[in-house]
Design goal:
Length: 281
Amino acid sequence: MINADTRICCLIGDPVEHSLSPLVHNAGYQALGINYAYVSFRVSDIRQAVEGLRGLDIRGASVTIPHKTSAMKYLDRLDPLAERIGAVNTIVNDDGVLTGYNTDGDGAIKALEEVTTLEGKKAVLVGAGGAALAIAFGLKARGVKLVVLNRTGAKARELAQKVGAEGYGGLKLAEIASADILINATPVGMPPETDRSIIPGELLHNRLTVFDIVYNPRETRLLAEARERGRAVVYGDRMFLYQAAKQFELFTGLKGPLKAMESALAQALEGGGNVTNLDRR
Ligand code: ATR
C-alpha cells in the first residue's frame, strides 16, 4: 500500500509509455514486500528532472533515451564505468547526493553467461552506439577478444579504440567465421525492421552463440535463423531483466528477486507487441 513512507523510484525519458521498467520493478517490490513504488515520467527538460529527484527525495531513477548522456552533467558523482562509457542509465539519490551508474553492460554479460563462458573467446559486436559501448566494456573486462563492426566505419574504430578492440566499417562479416559469439547491438530486427537481419543466416556457423539485444519482438529474425540452425541463442529480454535487477539492487540495497521480475516481464512480452526496445536504449 502506498503511504507516507513509500520510497519512490522512477523512469525518466521520452517516450516512456511503452516501457516495461515500471512493471518489472514494481513486481520486485511486491515480491519482497518492501514499501517502494516505481513510476514513469516523460521528461523533456533533464536538468529540471534531475533537480526534481533531489527536491522530492526520489530514491532512484532509470534513465532512458534521449537523456542517458545529457543527465550526466547534473549529477554529483559518476561510477567510474559510467564515466568511461559516457552514459548513465541509473541515478541513485543518497540524501541529496546523486550518483550515476550504467547497468547495461552488466546486464548483457549476465545474459551471455547463462549460455556460454567468455574468457578467451572471440566476439563480433555489430553496432557502435551507446548500448554497444557498454557491452564492449563488459566483454573486454571478461577477457574477450573483440571485433566491432559498424555501418559507419569511423564509429566502429572510435569505439574499438576506447575499449582496446579492432573496429571495421562496412560490416566486414568475414570476421564472424572465426568468432565464438555474435552480438547484434543495432535496432535492426525491432519495428519497423522486424523482417530484417544484418547477418545472413549462412554465416551462423555451428560454434557460434548468437545474442540480439533487441527484445521486441522477443525472437528477432536473427535469433530465429540461429535457433533454426541449432545455434545457442541469447534473447534480449535476459539483458533487460539483468540490467533491471542490478538497478533494483542499487535502489533498494536488496538483490532483485529475479523470479518475480522475470515472470512480470514474460507476461508483458507474451501479452503482445505493444512494447518497445527504447527503455534500454
Ligand atoms: P544505442 O544507444 O541504442 O546503441 P545508437 O547510438 O543510435 O543507439 O546506435 C545505433 C547503432 O545501430 C549504430 O551503430 C548504428 O550504425 P551507424 O553508426 O552507422 O548509424 C546502427 N544501426 C542503426 N540502424 C542500422 C541499420 N539499418 N543497419 C546497420 N546498422 C544500423
